[in-house]
């Protein structure tokens, strides 16, 4: 029988769970735990400079590896600082466990120093949260936390740990449970066979079909099955911004991504389709535009692990609840066996129409002889990194440009806050990726607004030697806010202008990194190349781009999917 | 449409706040809510009455089911069911009012459970409309205080909500 303190049990449980890294920040209520961490070397701790960044780091790690991330913080401000990060992970269904210290159970409710009701505060933005009431429950709670976080529709789980649950000299028997069983939580393990059959019949009979895939394909590790099915059918595929990389962007069947800033051909094909096969996406408002005008002629098959995602905003004709990989596998078998075949003539006509749409816009943008366009920067990065880099982004115009012009052929490489839209996400997420992928190129494409929301992490990068490349598309304004003000508020730029920007080069240097400024168009590619060649350094590349550029296409507010601005002057 | 949703919930601290939080977070409506432990002490039974379109009700049941601590639930209004609510009413009762109130209480099959020289306290059980009807019958001017338990419900016949 092994006797351990609560703190030692916690760390031991993390080891037994196979946790390699935790990201965090110490403080009073978590000190017993930190002491237990200190006395072992299996679980490595990364000390950030702000707790929000710890959560984004864990998030970046989770998105790149598909494994749950782990965060450790203290009570009160340490815990509340994680909320934006937790909400970010929640909106994008990222598996994560956030361990929060808490004041001693005897003090709870007394407004003790650094006391916050973290269970209450986090409740709306977690998949679940658990609090420790007896030290001997810790192994089971940890096991449960990871099980809930990583299964079904993944999400963040918070564990609240009062300080007296981790007292060093009170020891209890350590038993790490082999299995977790929860009578009230049983995620689906396969889809309904009858529904899958019905879906395949509809796919075979469709004349203008489209596959609409989302982040669920990446989370469900089903890219291979999706690609196989789509190739076998020969149908067009679009994906959400969260689904980028779930199907190779360079393949001709891929129409790019859809929605507010999606490609013309994707939005047009969706609107005119007669069958939408939605795989692991959720008909979010940034995709559908006005729901009452959404794809009037389309019947909808919707595959999702979460029944609540189905028919939430858009009614599904054939709902299929189940893990996408298992459902797609069954569909592949049925398609192979099917006596009915797609109507080749109808599908050829559909492709002809789509190719016309593709040729009509083709993600064109106006170039200028002397001003650097943000799109050009992303295209240059894509060429220079051969499309192989991990790219994280912050939120705004740069995020859309990165997603539009960097062509991802693999899943888990495009890492952004799609649901919550969290500025300040990019740098810490990139750090989480770089830590576990030291030999891969990791780019953080950002803007001068977003990067300043977690810039303190340059210090963490120095401490742990994380040579990410920060690509700052500097337009000296909050670009997306300004674009909306240009379009909807007669160019009244209320607070969207960033005066007194820091000298980012000196700032990077002050933290012990390298900085490169690019202002001239002819310098763009050679200087980017130089920056990328500095393999062992974090390089802050500050690029002065066109201050007046807008992101297009852009759906017209309250319109249907096909109502778009294609440039500042063209509306379709 | 008005619905009665019955939920078996893990009898754990914080579980109720998740249910209530879900309703406010997703902009659903709670009209009444009752909750108490069941004969199985690890479970609580919660009954919530709510209103919404079929689409909203479908989302409510799906979102409730997603809560880890929700073990099972049923929309009682989908089938034949019995619903009851308990009401205690304090009424001004002096002079000729006393006999009149007594008659009305009898008609509604209520009971006078406490008496003073000027006040009757009446206990009444039934569905919500019956309780509304009683208040209407005695007239609001004589009502000093009303406390209602919220709706409890159970399906008719063989159907049971259990593990």
UniProtKB/TrEMBL annotation, chain B:
One of its GO terms (molecular function) is acetolactate synthase regulator activity. The keyword Transcription regulation does not apply. It comes from the Bacteria. This is Acetolactate synthase small subunit. It holds the Pfam family ALS_ss_C. It catalyses: 2 pyruvate + H(+) = (2S)-2-acetolactate + CO2. Belongs to the acetolactate synthase small subunit family. Residues 4-78 form the ACT domain. Its EC number is 2.2.1.6. One of its GO terms (biological process) is isoleucine biosynthetic process. It comes from Marinobacter panjinensis. Gene3D superfamilies: 3.30.70.260, ACT-like. Chain A, domain 2. It is an enzyme of class 2 (transferase). Pathway: Amino-acid biosynthesis; L-valine biosynthesis; L-valine from pyruvate: step 1/4; Amino-acid biosynthesis; L-isoleucine biosynthesis; L-isoleucine from 2-oxobutanoate: step 1/4. GO terms for cellular component: cytosol. Keywords: Amino-acid biosynthesis, Branched-chain amino acid biosynthesis, Transferase. Dimer of large and small chains. NCBIfam families: acolac_sm (TIGR00119), PRK11895.1 (NF008864). InterPro entries: Acetalactate_synth_ssu (IPR004789), Acetolactate_synth/TF_NikR_C (IPR027271), Acetolactate_synth_ssu_C (IPR019455), ACT-like_dom_sf (IPR045865), ACT_dom (IPR002912), AHAS_ACT (IPR039557), AHAS_small-like_ACT (IPR054480). Catalyzes the conversion of 2 pyruvate molecules into acetolactate in the first common step of the biosynthetic pathway of the branched-amino acids such as leucine, isoleucine, and valine.
């Amino acid at each position: 029988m092994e006797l351990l303190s609560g703190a030692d049990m916690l760390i031991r449980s993390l080891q037994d769970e196979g946790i390699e890294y935790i990201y965090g920040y110490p403080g009073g209520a978590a000190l017993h735990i930190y002491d237990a961490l200190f006395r072992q070397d299996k679980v490595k701790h990364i000390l950030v400079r702000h707790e929000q960044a710890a959560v984004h780091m864990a998030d970046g790690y989770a998105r790149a590896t598909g494994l749950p991330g782990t965060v450790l913080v203290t009570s009160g401000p340490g815990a509340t600082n994680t909320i934006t990060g937790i909400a970010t992970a929640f909106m994008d269904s990222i598996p994560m466990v956030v361990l929060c210290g808490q004041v001693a159970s005897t003090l709870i409710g007394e407004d003790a120093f650094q006391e916050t009701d973290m269970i209450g505060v986090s409740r709306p933005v977690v998949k679940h949260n658990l609090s420790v009431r007896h030290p001997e429950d810790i192994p089971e709670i940890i096991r449960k936390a990871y099980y809930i976080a990583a299964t079904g529709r993944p999400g963040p789980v918070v564990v609240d740990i009062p300080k007296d649950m981790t007292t060093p000299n009170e020891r209890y028997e350590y038993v790490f449970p082999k299995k977790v069983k929860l009578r009230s939580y049983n995620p689906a393990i396969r889809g309904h066979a009858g529904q899958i059959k019905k879906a395949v019949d509809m796919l075979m009979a469709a004349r203008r079909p489209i596959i609409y895939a989302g982040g669920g394909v990446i989370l469900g590790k089903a890219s291979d099955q999706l690609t196989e099915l789509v190739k076998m059918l020969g149908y067009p595929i679009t994906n959400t911004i969260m689904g980028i990389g779930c199907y190779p962007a360079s393949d001709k069947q891929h129409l790019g991504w859809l929605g507010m800033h999606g490609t013309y051909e994707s939005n047009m094909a969706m609107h005119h389709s007669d069958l939408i096969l939605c795989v692991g996406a959720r008909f979010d408002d940034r995709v559908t535009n006005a729901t009452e005008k959404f794809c009037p002629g389309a019947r909808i098959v919707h595959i999702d692990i979460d029944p609540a995602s189905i028919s939430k905003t858009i009614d599904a004709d054939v709902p299929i609840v189940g893990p996408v990989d298992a459902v797609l596998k069954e569909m592949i078998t049925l398609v192979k066996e099917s006596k009915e075949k797609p109507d080749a003539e109808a599908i050829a006509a559909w492709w002809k129409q789509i190719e016309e749409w593709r040729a009509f816009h083709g993600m064109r943008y106006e170039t200028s002889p002397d001003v650097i366009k943000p799109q050009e920067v992303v295209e240059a990065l894509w060429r220079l990194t051969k499309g192989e880099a991990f790219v994280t982004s912050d939120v705004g115009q740069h995020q859309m440009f990165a997603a539009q012009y960097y062509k991802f052929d693999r899943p888990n490489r495009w890492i952004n806050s799609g649901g919550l839209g969290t500025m300040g996400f990019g740098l810490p997420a990139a750090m989480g990726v770089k830590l576990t992928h030291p030999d891969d190129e990791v780019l953080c494409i950002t803007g001068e607004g977003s990067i300043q929301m977690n810039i303190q992490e340059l210090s963490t990068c120095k401490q742990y030697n994380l040579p990410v490349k920060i690509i700052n598309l500097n337009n000296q304004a909050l670009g997306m806010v300004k674009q909306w003000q240009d379009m909807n508020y007669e160019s009244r730029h209320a607070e969207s202008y960033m005066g007194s920007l820091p000298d980012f080069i000196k700032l990077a240097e002050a933290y012990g990194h390298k900085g490169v400024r690019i202002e001239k168009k002819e310098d763009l590619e050679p200087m980017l190349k130089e920056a990328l060649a500095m393999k062992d350094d974090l390089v802050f590349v500050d690029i002065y781009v066109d201050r007046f550029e807008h992101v297009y296409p852009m759906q017209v507010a309250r319109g249907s999917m096909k109502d778009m601005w294609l440039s500042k002057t063209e509306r379709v | 449409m008005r619905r009665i949703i019955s939920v078996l919930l893990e009898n754990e601290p914080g579980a109720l706040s998740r249910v209530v939080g879900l309703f406010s977070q997703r902009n659903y409506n709670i009209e009444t809510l009752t909750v108490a432990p069941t004969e199985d002490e690890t479970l609580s039974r919660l009954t919530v009455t709510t209103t919404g379109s079929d689409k909203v009700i479908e989302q409510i049941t799906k979102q409730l089911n997603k809560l880890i601590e929700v073990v099972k639930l049923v929309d009682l209004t989908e089938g034949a069911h019995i619903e009851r609510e308990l009401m205690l009413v304090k009424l001004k009762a002096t002079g000729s009012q006393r006999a009149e109130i007594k008659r009305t209480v009898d008609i509604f099959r209520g009971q006078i459970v406490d008496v003073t020289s000027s006040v009757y306290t009446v206990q009444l059980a039934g569905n919500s409309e019956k309780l509304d009807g009683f208040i209407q019958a005695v007239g609001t001017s004589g009502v000093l205080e009303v406390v209602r338990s919220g709706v409890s419900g159970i399906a008719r016949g063989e159907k049971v909500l259990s593990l």
